[in-house]
Write a structure and sequence with these properties.
Elements lengths: L3 E6 L3 H14 L2 E7 L2 H11 L3 E5 L7 H11 L5 E6 L4 H10 L3 E4 L4 H12 L4 E2 L1 H7 L15 H11 L4 H8 L3 H15 L4 H10 L14
Parallel strand pairs: 1-2, 1-3, 3-4, 4-5, 5-6
Helix pairs in contact: 2-3, 7-9, 7-10, 8-9
């Protein structure tokens, strides 16, 4: 019987090790790669073509939602994506649903449910944690003015700004000029109707782009 090939993407090594041990114990899966940040995940998925990507939402450099967008945009034959998060906030859920991602589990989910979820999404079915499934039932998608109107580059800049990056650091990270960073930053502010870094950070937290612990020190 063919084993389901899996890439694990989470910035916490203890979580990756725990999931890997669980999947190896089951015997029906083969972990073909592990990634600790969003950029590494994107490169790994594009090169290894796994059946399923178990993808944490809150990761450095590129968050899991942005990685999922890029995978969906770039790959003709897409792996099934199962999102993991410590949070079940509506901001996260709405974006996951809008992207068409196959499943969403909160990290409090049991180990048994994780293996069930991977098998389900591999088979082409949707799979959500019970608490999320109940909230989704009959609930219209909330208005996401925002993130969905930003370009891919603007979302990158927004995340890096919210993570505390200075313009020069962001320019070096994205291999673009400081002036280009400033232009993207201003475009983001204009589209979101925001005027400072604190506002961008609050927005990034509310939209599920970063976790509140990342830059809570600059919030009032």
């Amino acid at each position: 019987m063919k084993k389901i090939t899996v890439i694990l993407a989470d910035d916490h090594i203890i979580i990756r090790e725990g999931i890997r041990a669980l999947l190896e114990l089951d015997g029906g899966f083969e972990v073909i790669g592990e990634a600790a940040d969003g950029r590494q995940t994107e490169i790994m998925v594009l090169s290894l073509h796994p059946d399923v990507v178990v993808l944490d939402i809150a990761m450095p450099q590129l968050n899991g939602l942005e990685v999922a967008r890029r995978i969906i945009q770039q790959m003709k034959i897409q792996p099934k994506i199962l999102m993991l998060s410590a949070h079940g906030d509506d901001a996260y859920i709405d974006q996951v649903v809008a992207l068409g991602v196959a499943g969403y589990l909160v990290k409090q989910t049991s180990a048994l449910m994780l293996t069930r979820a991977i098998r389900a999404v591999y088979a082409g079915k949707g799979f959500y944690s019970p608490s999320i499934a109940r909230r989704l039932s009959g609930r219209p998608l909330r208005n996401k003015k925002a993130v969905m109107e930003l370009t891919t580059r603007e979302r990158e800049v927004l995340q890096l700004v919210a993570e505390g990056g200075a313009n020069k650091e962001i320019a070096d990270e994205l291999n673009i000029s400081i002036k280009t960073v400033e232009k993207h930053r201003q475009n983001v502010m204009n589209k979101l109707g925001l005027h400072d870094t604190a506002g961008l950070t609050r927005y990034a937290i509310a939209a599920g782009i970063i976790e509140s612990s990342v830059q809570c020190t600059i919030l009032p």
